[in-house]
Amino acid sequence: MTSLNGAVVLVTGANGGIGTHFVREALARGAAKVYATARTPRGWDDNRIVPLTLDVTDPASIRAALAAAQDVTVLINNAGASVSTPGILAHTDEEIRRNVETNFLGPLFLARAFAPILSAKDNAAIIDIHSALAWWAVAGIYSATKAALWSATNSLRLELAPAGVQVLGVHVGYVDTAMAAHSTEPKVDPADLVASVFEALEAGEHEVLADQTSVQLKAALSAPVDYVYPQLAVRP
User: Fold this and answer.
1) Sign of the dihedral through C-alpha 8, 196, 76, 125
2) Of 47, 56, 96, nearest to 76 (Cα)?
3) What is the mean pLDDT of residues 88-111?
4) Percent of the chain scoring above 90 in pLDDT
5) Would you call 146 a catalytic residue per the annotation?
6) Tens digit of pLDDT for each residue in 119-170?
7) Under a CB-based contact definition with an 8 Å cutoff, are residues 53 and 64 in contact?
8) Cβ-count burial of 64 within 10 angstroms (0-12 exposed, 13-18 middle, 19+ buried)?
9) Cα 197 to the center of its chain, rounded Å
10) Helix and strand totals (H; E) in the chain
11) How many angstroms separate the CA atoms of 83 and 198, rounded?
């Protein structure tokens, strides 16, 4: 289990709705410092918050963040890209590359970069924000990248366990942020999501299923494909 009391936290995508809650809630739970990272960092009203430029798709930017934040004990891979249309055949080449680089390669390369630092510390952790859509391929390349991140998180968990680094994977459906403004589906309050993530972290858990959608989709993983995707059962 990882305590946030005295922790030094780095949050990617800190300007967004979920990211901002991660920054604020980490401090509320006793973090000593939070690096609030974004491509274009914003100002904050708390000197415990350190704005830091970070483009997770840029190796040089990752190296610069690593050099600037050697004291990090908790890495939160929150930054993400979405898609404009659900069909993977309809995505542009640029959209596919942006999702792969932001949702999968970025978190993976950040985890690899910070792993030696975290492994040398007590009370260290990585939190990866997945999606319920990792288990339901209705969002094209977005679903594919979140499924890839889920698998990478499992690998990281196994490899970092001997060093005592906790790796927590988070699955959630729609969250009430600007990214999900287009959806009329039920949405999780970002404050509730972040609270549940930190509670799981401090309880030593490996995974968070933050809503009923995530619970149901994970339970369906062992079901036949045409149960998960009933449209496949339709025959001409």
Assistant:
1) positive
2) 56
3) 96
4) 83
5) yes
6) 999 999 999 999 999 999 999 999 999 999 999 999 999 999 999 999 999 9
7) yes
8) middle
9) 11
10) 8, 7
11) 28
| Structural tokens at position 26 | 């980490």
Rounded to whole angstroms, how far apart are CA atoms 87 and 106? Answer: 23
- Each residue's pLDDT tens digit, 134-145: 999 999 999 999
Give pLDDT tens digits for 197-209: 999 999 999 999 9
Alpha helices (runs of H) in the chain, residue ranges in sequence order: 17-28, 59-68, 93-99, 106-119, 141-160, 190-202, 212-219, 225-228
β-pair partners for 10: 35, 75
Strand order in the sheet with 49-53: 49-53, 33-38, 8-11, 74-77, 125-129, 166-171, 207-209
Which one is catalytic: 33, 35, 142, 174?
142
| Backbone angles phi and psi of 116, in degrees to 5 | -65, -40
Catalytic site includes residue 187: no
CA distance 203 to 59: 33
d(CA 152, CA 46): 34
1 pLDDT more than 90: no
Which entry of 146, 174, 227, 229 is annotated as an active-site residue? 146
